[in-house]
Amino acid sequence: MSQFYQLLPLTLVAAYWIVIAGVSLRIVLKRRPFGVSLAWLLLIYIIPLFGVVVYLLFGELNIGRKRKQRVKEMTAPFKYWNERLHRQAQSDRRLGQHVRPLHELSLRRLGIPALLGNDLELIENSQTILERIINDIHQASDTIHMEFYIWHPGGLVDEVADALIEARQRGVTVRLLLDGAGSREFFNSRWPKKLEQQGVSIVKALGVNPLRMFLRRMDLRQHRKIVVIDQRIAYTGSMNLVDSRYFKQSAGVGEWIDIMVRLTGPSVCSLAALQSWDWEFETDERLLDEIALPQAESSREHRHAEDSVQVIPSGQGLPESIIQQVLLLSIYHAKHSITLTSPYFVPSEQLLDALRTAAQSGVEVNLIIPDKNDSFMVEWASRAFFTELLNAGVVIYRFSGGLLHTKSMLIDDDHCIIGTVNLDIRSLLLNSEVSLAIDDPDFCRELGQLLDRYLKQSNRIDAHQWQLRPMWKKLVEQFFYTFAPLL
């Protein structure tokens, strides 16, 4: 018995080091960005057992066995559908020079072509956005598909729900796909039961189930915001289905400031196909066959016949790092100016280097972020990047008119990227997101005017004054910077 008690500690120590070594080796062999691997290794060695458990839960992109199998079965039909769309669109020869690289990248990695002849409208006020959506729902005659990260009841959002019930009573097919974590307020409210009683189909995407925590990664989120009505009208952008007057009023950051793009034209079909991908990913129910390909362009006289929209999805089941490639490609092709807005700024090493390189090569780089953030950790981690960016010539503005939630990049004032993607690791590598790469001078002019209004409500960070901040702040920033790749 004495030998047992002597061997037990040695056995436990050996098992401990085998586990630590095994997980460490697994992290290294994943060949991720150096900063990501280093952050995980630090967490494991600073808080050993806790770090190992956290890594096993959140360290790898595990979508679960059923979803993996589903993706294999979905890929071929969606690839064929996009090939037919590409052949019918025949837009390649008419794409602008700065759009073509993004088109080729998206076509080769995603199979999704850039499409011409869309009408776009930039809407910047949450109440106006909701009123426009309600009006379009009232006009719907066939289908309404809505997909959001957050549905927060209250204000005009409840009127959206009432409009959906009225549409369903007219015989319109209504489907809602909502993230399980982001929309928990909705799922805990009276609305799911009320909507389902009227025949509205509601699916909880990536529902959080502690019993399955070791079978799939629990913090993956369905972060897209898409509305498609009758396959004729679509909305996408940064705004969740929330009325900003009723959303997170106790957070102390002011009203959330968002934009949405309302579009009609061929790209609506691309967004509808993306929704059908997400629906099948969650339910195994195929809706792709219901989506009609857009009619071939009948005339080149359309007001936007030479302007393109590229739909770029990213996330679970799709090629890795695609949105980061899109952003990097756009930054490196900029000739004169880049203006970015993001509520959460914790960039990858590659994105940080691209912004610094652009500024150092003479491109005017402006970054607009909120002055107050609803995420304590992201707030401090963001500050850790300011010194490098300021030294490189990037101009940083802190928006004081609320929580600036708009996610956009305007390049050379003539093309832009708008969507759901934050400039942080989570959006770049983990969440399911969607972006629009838009080549439309009129639209970009409107976006530029909006960004100018943001700048008028912002304070520019002075590089010299920033260096004089207290030492304790620098230490806190450095601490969160170390773990920035995990945020």
Automatic annotation (TrEMBL):
Keyword DNA-binding attributed: no
Gene3D superfamilies given in the database record: Endonuclease Chain A
TM ranges: 7-28, 34-58
GO biological process: cardiolipin biosynthetic process
Superkingdom classification of source: Bacteria
Matching InterPro entries: Cardiolipin_synthase, CL_synthase_A, CLS_N, PLD-like_dom, PLipase_D/transphosphatidylase
The protein's Enzyme Commission number: 2.7.8.-
Domain called PLD phosphodiesterase: residue spans: 218-245, 400-427
A GO molecular-function descriptor: cardiolipin synthase activity
Subcellular location: Cell membrane
Topology versus the membrane: Multi-pass membrane protein
Reaction catalyzed: 2 a 1,2-diacyl-sn-glycero-3-phospho-(1'-sn-glycerol) = a cardiolipin + glycerol
Keywords: Cell membrane, Lipid biosynthesis, Lipid metabolism, Membrane, Phospholipid biosynthesis, Phospholipid metabolism, Repeat, Transferase, Transmembrane, Transmembrane helix
UniProt GO cellular component terms: plasma membrane
Active site: H223, K225, D230, H405, K407, D412
Top EC category: transferase
Family under the similarity heading: Belongs to the phospholipase D family. Cardiolipin synthase subfamily. ClsA sub-subfamily.
Function in brief: Catalyzes the reversible phosphatidyl group transfer from one phosphatidylglycerol molecule to another to form cardiolipin (CL) (diphosphatidylglycerol) and glycerol.
Record HAMAP family: Cardiolipin_synth_ClsA
Protein's recorded name: Cardiolipin synthase A
Organism: Ferrimonas sediminum
Gene that specifies this protein: clsA
